[in-house]
Design goal:
five-stranded antiparallel beta sheet, 189 residues, mainly beta
Length: 189
């Protein structure tokens, strides 16, 4: 897989392990004939270590040999999160510490979760691109502010805090991008 084809969320083999690409920055050349550089921040799915590496656009890395199984979040306790693999009906447990970023988006009814299986071992989960969460606390809406582009912080049911338009009120369901943690829209229905 060429460096210029790698997208955020892809899983590649780097330093002999599967790594989830968490962010990409592109550095364009300033001189003629220079190559565009792609800087990647990745998290090894087995050791949980983060690493940064840089590749030229024409250099490549191997995609990781893993499978994705649809899963359902069953429950969480203070130390672990428990998921049911909907393909094999096995239960997989992950440490809350290992899924610190993902836990902010997990609710019992969440659909579209994928368990990542590498060499017969569950190494992580992948969330859907967007989730619906309920606003549990925010400042009251101010009358007449619906036309402005101002935002305010809102706390969601999972404890995640996102910036939302000023007119939104407590109790409203919203869609949040799981890759960036940004407000997308009001949830339909």
């Amino acid at each position: 897989m060429l460096a210029k084809e790698i997208k955020r969320g892809a899983i590649v083999t780097y330093q002999d392990g599967p790594c989830l690409i968490e962010s990409i920055s592109v550095q364009s050349p300033s001189a003629r004939g220079a190559s565009t550089l792609y800087k990647f921040r990745a998290r090894n799915l087995i050791s949980k270590q983060k690493s940064d590496f840089t590749l030229k656009g024409t250099e490549s890395v191997e995609p990781a040999n893993f499978s994705r199984h649809p899963a359902q979040f069953i429950y969480g306790d203070p130390t672990h999160l428990h998921f049911l693999d909907l393909t094999t009906f096995e239960q997989h447990d992950f440490s809350v510490k290992d899924l610190a970023e993902e836990v902010q988006y997990l609710t019992e009814s969440l659909e579209g979760i994928q368990i990542l299986i590498f060499e017969e071992q569950a190494v992580g989960i992948q969330l859907p691109l967007a989730v619906e969460l309920t606003v549990t606390h925010c400042d009251p809406a101010t009358r007449g502010n619906s036309a402005t582009g101002r935002t305010k912080p809102a706390t969601l049911e999972t404890g995640l805090v996102v910036q939302v338009p000023e007119y939104l009120e407590q109790g409203v369901r919203i869609k949040v991008d799981t890759r960036t943690g940004e407000f997308l829209s009001r949830a339909s229905g």
